Amino acid sequence: MSRKIRVLVVDDSALVRKVLTEILGSAPDIEVVGTAQDPYVARERIKSLDPDVLTLDVEMPRMDGLTFLRNLMRLRPMPVVMVSSLTARGADVTLQALELGAVDFVTKPTLDVSRTLGEYSRELIDKVRMAAGARLRSPARLAAPPPKYSVDEVVPPRPAGRWRTTDRMMAIGASTGGTEAVKEVLMALPADCPAVVIAQHIPPGFSKAWADRMDRQTRLVVREAEDGDRLVNGHVFIAPGDHHLLVVRDGARYVCRLSQAEPVNRHRPSVDVLFRSVLQSAGTNACAALLTGMGADGAQGLKELHDVGVFTIAQDEATSVVWGMPGEAIKRGGASAVLPLREVAGALLKAASS
């Protein structure tokens, strides 16, 4: 048998330490080797216990989580999953932590056993497993009809147009590691680039904070999408947490539509939903990129775009934090190009101008 994933839980709340320890300990391939109530204790236990993954509270006494994370990534880089409160400050600090090198984050457990703790447990275990393997950054016959899959409930399939107009758009999907990957792409785009629509797996409350940070750090106007927003050049529209983002035609214009239909591939927003809507509304007026992320959301949508002639990009394995979504898209034959992250923006611009 392979060795279990060794986890150190760092949180100032004894109750949260207990809950996280019990959840992670229920997984047969994970072992919680210790806990710590603050960064000073954590520093000593990292030395003595040599964990594979750290769960780290965002806000703690004696030394805040960001200061500790900054020192950790400089002196002893290791996979870190942040545990964040559902507050504006918690969201902002968590996004800073992802910039510093944290692999992913979960929100604080609500302790609502009957309704949410089961789903929370699955999310936490999945993210710790993913973090343990993450890269730290320093036909001739008549074919049967394609099987229906969950995105069909939100955006029913129909023939997509191959038209070309002067109104172009770029669609981007991402998950684990995506907040930083998307930022790198957006920072390389000019202020007058075609409109960009983004589905990033992110919970409510965090998507607006992330959009605001991107608005400050790039030359583009970045906003959390609202229902009815018109797509215009130089603007970026990010799917709000817990909402699917779709692009639809309104006469000669493209507009954003939000939906709280059922999650697709366990996600809302779903990349597949966004990509399918872009396919139906824009056809080959669009180009698309699927970046780093755990799972397969967006892989089928990217293939559907590719199959009608849309230029599609999958991020390469070497620059992905987790090569799940783009790797699956490549397996399905959905990528026109497989590129390192630094080349994605340029390739999207070239495709949008051709």
TrEMBL record:
One term under GO cellular component: cytoplasm
EC numbers, comma separated: 3.1.1.61, 3.5.1.44
Any GO BP: chemotaxis
Domain Response regulatory: 6-123
Active site, renumbered: S175, H201, D297
A Pfam family: Response_reg
InterPro entries per record: CheB-like, CheB_C, CheY-like_superfamily, Sig_transdc_resp-reg_Me-estase, Sig_transdc_resp-reg_receiver
Keyword Phosphoprotein: yes
Domain CheB-type methylesterase: 163-354
Modified residues (4-aspartylphosphate): D57
Subcellular location: Cytoplasm
Hydrolase among keywords: yes
Modified how: Phosphorylated by CheA. Phosphorylation of the N-terminal regulatory domain activates the methylesterase activity.
Domain free text: Contains a C-terminal catalytic domain, and an N-terminal region which modulates catalytic activity.
Record family assignment: Belongs to the CheB family.
Function of the protein: Involved in chemotaxis. Part of a chemotaxis signal transduction system that modulates chemotaxis in response to various stimuli. Catalyzes the demethylation of specific methylglutamate residues introduced into the chemoreceptors (methyl-accepting chemotaxis proteins or MCP) by CheR. Also mediates the irreversible deamidation of specific glutamine residues to glutamic acid.
Protein name: Protein-glutamate methylesterase/protein-glutamine glutaminase
Gene that encodes it: cheB
